[in-house]
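User: Fold this one for me? It's Acyl-CoA synthetase (NDP forming).
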Amino acid sequence: MRSLQTLVSPKSIAIIGASERFHQNAGRVMVNLQKSKYSGEIYLVNPNYDTISGIHCYPSVLEIKEEVDLACIIVPSKHTPEILRECVKKQVKSVIIISSGFSESGPDGINREEELKEIVKGTETAVYGPNSPGFYHFIGNWGISFSPRFEPKNFHEGSVGLISHGGSLGRAVLDANEKGLGFSYWLSPGNEMDITINDCFEFLISDPSTDTILLIIESISEEERFFRLLHQAYIKQKPVILLPIGHSKISRMAVKYHLGRNNDYSIPWDMVNHPGLVKAESIDEVVALSWLFDTYKKAAGKRTAIFSWAGATSIYLADLCDKYGIQLQPLSSELQQKMKTITGIEKSFMNPLDLTTIVYDDLSKLTTCLEVLHKSGDFDNIIVPFPFQVDYQNEVLSEQMKKLMEERDSIFIPIFMSQGYQGELAIDILKETKKPYFFHENTAIKSLSAYINYSETQRQEEEHNEKTIKSC
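Assistant: Here's what I get for Acyl-CoA synthetase (NDP forming).
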């Protein structure tokens, strides 16, 4: 295993290939690092400059007298072997190679990457990359990135560690940070010449700030090690959310051009069943699952209710709950009577709950019913759909939900279902909570089911272990 410690916690960083062309990748790496709260030493290396933005520029990493923990190489691929040799001679502990043009680019690139492997073979220098988009350290509020949208001041730290092959899907998920999904790290080791996905996986399993691990991966080397690590994560009660990509015939061919790796054999993930693995089928599901685990950790239970004022909507969501194995337990006779009293309607109330459009005329009936359902203690999860905009109803309901969310008696699953108007104030109100809300009902229900099932499995495991200990 290659250690990631000096990669993510370096006391000094050298940017090799730094440039004053700040609109280009090499220039942006320096600018983005300066935006960060990185507190260590930053050294710039480029023989074409004496200074960049008033900072001294060294002609070579060998000219830096102080120790260098991490070197970031962003130079043309043909110069990378020479630069890496200098890093090894300097005894740089970790090197991140952002430069592309290696095994993903054809025979010449494959040869260059093999040369890089030989250079670090048997040395203490660990290499992350090449062809890597960098990494984000949300806990430390810094990162190595050439993204023009890198804004560490807006980082919302949390407990989700993300590992992705490539930058595009990784950043698509990271954008959920703006909604409230909190991350610990984003790692993307590119072609995995030295540091691998498994090394990143093992790091997050042992990292105390990471509670949930999210994998968006094209292929896995060392499969036996991967499944061993998966079980370690399960023992540590860290759910592993997986979105596998590159499993169709045409996409396996594309992996070869993306990572320069043959992927003729793809793990049949449909057949892989491990209690610690939560499989997702879309970016939407990935974000939903991660957000639930990040916000609520382990589910309190599986008792679930649907709270609605629209009959067809409640029926539709009940179908989805049935599809994904969420049981809707009946309302108690006491709750049914309270709903009748509050609404003034003499009808049979059930779960799914349909308050009918009578609440249009008096929104206090809507909010009071939700509060009574929440405080009854009968339900661990309450699904609340917003089918469409009705005057101020959605805003009033959101305000009530926001207030009840602070009490944490139940987990709320708000679902905004309108296929047109989504610019309403109700969404902004719930955004303030930094807690999950949804725009796709299928994703919401399916993710809630997977979240509950994982938590129930862990709970049963704990109970089994306790019985075993007591019987000894």
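One thing worth pointing out: The first helix runs from residue 5 to 8.
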